[in-house]
Amino acid sequence: MGDESLAGRHSHGRRSARGSDRKTRHRGRRSRAGGFGGGSAPAAPRADAGDADACREAALTLLDAAARSSGALTRRLVDKGFDTNVVDQVIDRLTKLGLLDDRAYAQDLLRSCLHRTMGERGVLSEMTRKGLDPGLAAQVVAQASHEGLFVDSAYELGRKVARKTAGLDLKVRKRRFWSAGSRKGHSPGLLNQVAADLFVSDDPLD
């Protein structure tokens, strides 16, 4: 398959990191409900394990289904039984063609996480879980922190909790905000700042 055909095929099936997250969460819920979740079984030996064309076709199929980092795609291909050297060659080729772009994927994932009002620690953990290089993840998160995006995220979370807990005791409202903020990976110092600004009475957003 030629390089232009590869790029053309993938452009029709490209999905965002947010879409990938939704599919992953949906599969996770279905697995728990049906009782057939858990880790994937080891791949059976395959006759085409060293076939670069077969590996490339499998990679494109996975990318058509959902956006992925190079690390996540590597794991999936190895799990499918392809030879690691062949997988590395395919990943390198797709990266050179622009069909894999970890920095762009990281930025897309960052936007998805901020949309879910996640904090710095939570975003870094999510990027690592999605197979991004730790160094790249740290760079993207550090830039977002420098731009104040996690402060905005924490205040947005605070406003949501304030609206939902209107009329409750102030201590209860603060406790629920702290619980939500901690789960989403916001720093204690930032949570203190938001709580002091937004939770000063039993009424929302005073």
TrEMBL record:
Domain RecX first three-helical, first and last residues per copy: 55-94
Keyword DNA damage part of the UniProt annotation: no
Transmembrane spans: none
Keywords: Cytoplasm
Disordered: annotated span: 1-50
GO cellular component: cytoplasm
Entry annotated with the keyword Transcription: no
Family stated for the protein in its record: Belongs to the RecX family.
PANTHER family: REGULATORY PROTEIN RECX FAMILY PROTEIN
Name used for this protein in its record: Regulatory protein RecX
Upper taxonomic lineage: Bacteria, Bacillati, Actinomycetota, Actinomycetes, Bifidobacteriales
